[in-house]
Amino acid sequence: MTERLYYTDAYQRQFDARVMRRTEGARRLYLDRTAFYPTSGGQPHDSGTIDGVSVIDVVDEGTTIAHVTAAPVIADRVSACVDWPRRHDLMQQHTGQHLISAVFADSFGYQTISVHFGDKMSSLDLDTNTIDLHEIREAEARANALIAENRQVVVSFEHATDATGLRKPSDRDGILRIVSIDGVDRSACGGTHVRSTAEIGVLLLRRQEKIRKNTRIEFVCGQRAARRARADYEAIAGIAHALSASVDEVPGLVNSQLQQLKEAETAGRRLATEIADLRAREHYAATEPDANGMRRFAARLDTGSLDEWRSFAIAMSTLPRAVCVIGIGVARSVVVSASEDSDVDAGAIMKRVTAAEGGRGGGSARLAQGVFPDDESFARALPLLGG
Ligand SMILES: [Zn+2]
């Protein structure tokens, strides 16, 4: 059996212990006592050293705790040290979670159904499929007010039958470990917590996400919250600088610029169509009709975009008795258009030629498009399409 020192003193970071058993080439140690928290209850295991060797995993095996080390540890008596900044950070996140879960339950009746503590971000799942922004703001403000009130956080051991007023009833029998935040919360929990709410520092609620019928909310506490807020500020300040605006002006300015961009895109499309129409009329007028009164415009180009020339071909097809074939060399693509009274089916011709030359393409009787696998098939296809 391993005595869990963190149960009674979460602030003990150094300890001596006796090695009771070792396996896996002396890389898995069982000690008579430990301050290392094992992975459980959503909280990751502690890191640190045993006799100077890194601890890479800590596993709860029921009555004992296994310490997995990076190298063999052969001494029978060892000195160990928990990575304190990391542990203290997790204590802040964990106590912050108790606090915010209590606030959500008391203020809105939302119960916490699961929690997760990550290296960068932690989250809790609430039993509600929707949560309003005003509820998020209110819960965050309430939690930070309770942090400022410096409420004591104490651990007690109570028999399951006597333990009343728990936020979530425990399904365990016997002695329960109860973590209480003075006047706010009583929860059965085996994790590590800070001594008072003030030590949480600050709590920020962040992204929310719907997970099936529940809502997952990310949160950060302590130095993490300060680091996250700094990263947010620098990101927004960068946008503000690019817009020559203040940070507070950014949301309104980004929205109005998006709107302007949409309007500019619409205007751009309209102008492109007008230019294509003008060009088509110009080329149409310059093309001599054949004996049947048909105007056949053909060109091979090595510049310009497919979109641009497709607009031109569409404009051509709106003019009387016209067939237009444009090959774009860099894309090995061909656009064919035919006006309604031309008796030419652009799609049918394109289908026949792409099939013969191993290309891909098709379209309607008025407009068709195809692409060919190499320069040779593209060059052969162009005259077959009327180009
Ligand atoms: Zn806890």
Keywords:
about 375 residues, alpha+beta, Elongation Factor Tu (Ef-tu), domain 3, Threonyl-tRNA Synthetase, Chain A, domain 2, Diaminopimelate Epimerase, Chain A, domain 1, 3 domains, six-stranded antiparallel beta barrel, binds zinc ion
Structure notes:
- By secondary structure, the chain is an alpha+beta fold.
- The chain has helices at residues 5-8, 84-108, 133-148, 222-242, 250-286, 306-317, 346-357, 375-384; strands at 3-4, 14-23, 28-31, 33-34, 48-50, 53-60, 65-69, 77-82, 112-117, 122-126, 153-159, 175-181, 185-188, 203-211, 214-221, 295-301, 322-328, 333-338, 360-363, 367-371.
- The strands form five sheets. The protein has a six-stranded antiparallel β-barrel with strand order 2-3-7-6-5-8. Strands 16-17-18-20-19 form a five-stranded mixed beta sheet, with helices on both faces. A four-stranded antiparallel beta sheet has the order 9-10-15-14.
- Helix 2 packs across helix 3 (133-148) and helix 5 crosses helix 6 (306-317).
- The chain starts with a strand and ends with a helix.
- 31% of the residues are buried.
- The mean pLDDT is 95.
- Zinc ion binds next to helix 2.
